[in-house]
Structure formats: C-alpha cells, structure tokens
Amino acid sequence: MRTPIVAGNWKMNKTVEEARSLVLEMSRNLRDIKGVEIVLCPPFPALLAVSAMLQGTDIGLGAQNLHWEEKGAFTGEVSPGMVAEFCQYVIIGHSERRAYFGETDEKVNRKVHAALSHGLTPIVCVGETENEYESGRTGEVVRRQISLGLANIDPAKAAGLVVAYEPVWAIGTGKASSGENANAVLADHIRPALAGLFGAETAQAIRIQYGGSVTAANADEFFSQPEIDGALVGGASLKLDEFTGIVKAAAKP
Ligand code: PGA
To answer: What is the 8-class DSSP label of residue 13?
Structure first.
C-alpha cells in the first residue's frame, strides 16, 4: 500500500507575513489528519519561517526548485544543500519551469540527482501540453520525460521518488482531467516507464500524484482511482478550506 501524498505548490504567492498567517491556520486544521503525507511548498523567502512553524507537526516542507550545483557563481540560484537546510521535499520540472525557464529533461535529471544526494524527496512533474494531448502524444511525452528525467537514478533510491502527472492543459485552467483519463495515463505509460527503469517492484512503490485544477469538490474523483496516490495542488493550496478538504479526501481509507 502506498501512502497518499498531497503537496501544496504555492508558486509565486505569499510574502513571509502572509505565509505565516496561512500556515498558522493550516497547521491547526491539518496536524491531526492521519493516513496522508502533507507537504507545503511556499516560495524560498518563506521557507525559514514556515519550517519553524511546522516543527513538531507531521507536515513536511518543500521547495519549488533548486539548482544542481553545490555552490559558486550562479547568481539567483539556490543549491540543494541550502534547500535541505529547511526542506524534506523539492518540486522538480514543473511545467511552468519547463515552459518559462528553459527547464529541459536533462536539467530535470541533474536536479533529481542533486536532490537525492542531499536526502531530499523529489516531486518530479511530467505532463503533456494541450497540443500534445490533442494529437494523441500523451504517452510518448510522459514516457520521454520519465526516461530522461529519471535516467541513471540508483534503483535503491528510486522507490522514494514522487512523480506528479500534471497535464499542462489542466493546470490553473479549472479544466481538470477526468479521474479515469489520469488513471489511464499512470497505468498505461507512467508506471510502465518507471518499471522499465527500476523494475516492476520499485515502480509499484513509487507514489504518483495527479495535478491540475484539483479542488475539494473533485478530489475524490482522483483519489478513488487505483493508480493515483495523492495530488499536487496549485491554486486550491492557497485556500484553507479547499486544501483541508483535499487532504481529508486523500486520507480516507
Ligand atoms: P493548479 O496547479 O492546481 O492551480 O491547477 C497545479 C500545479 O501547477 O501544480
């Protein structure tokens, strides 16, 4: 049995002050919910404050990105060691980073290696664009993103990876995939691609989230699918009641 994992990707939202007030309420709402791993991913400046607030809770903390180098002349970047000072998780290869910041599968792969070597759990995002979806290329795209993005990962460490399947056309659009469609992509393409890299047993252990317009109202549709092990939540993770509702839906037996 894979423990579901729900992560809130705050993207570029919330000052430190705003983050503090949201996390104060969230930790009250979420701290006693069992049976689901919960992760908050605020922007970099809020990580220190939020990590202090999450001490003593089971709620994990994640960054939204990292650089693969340890240190040096990389203006504006944050190293894996700096992330690991505060976080247990890191989102890698989000479609916004791929689309706006030139993140290729090769860069994703370097970042995954760097994260694992610092004991961080990578949440590796894959997913097809609307064009790719409409031309029937979803399987080909996610298989390529998995095989290049997760190349040469030590199979002994691979079971700890988290993959997020996020069709780009569903992100921030209010047009979520159907649960059935997302489950089929996981069953037919993502888990088989993971099995090709790491073997069937390890592939069965890897958690795969769905992401893209998940709300408290549609969460059950995803979490009732056998292959879907939680969600990566954008917009709804900034709303206390929405995020609480999604976490509770994932925690249901
Ligand atoms: P959304 O974003 O929930 O706002 O669609 C999901 C994501 O980008 O991770």
So the answer is: -
Active site residues: 94, 166
Task: Give how far the C-alpha of residue 201 lies from the chain's centroid of Cα atoms, to the nearest Å.
Answer: 22
pTM confidence score = 0.98
Pairwise CA distance, residues 14 & 51, whole Å: 15
Separation of CA 79 and ligand 1 centre (Å): 24
Pocket probe mutation, ligand 1, options 9, 95, 168, max atoms within 8 Å of Cβ: 9
| pLDDT tens, position by position, 3-57 | 999 999 999 999 999 999 999 999 999 988 999 999 999 999 999 999 999 999 9
State the DSSP string of 25-73.
HHHHHHTT--SSEEEEE--GGGHHHHHHHHTTSS-EEEES---SSSSSS
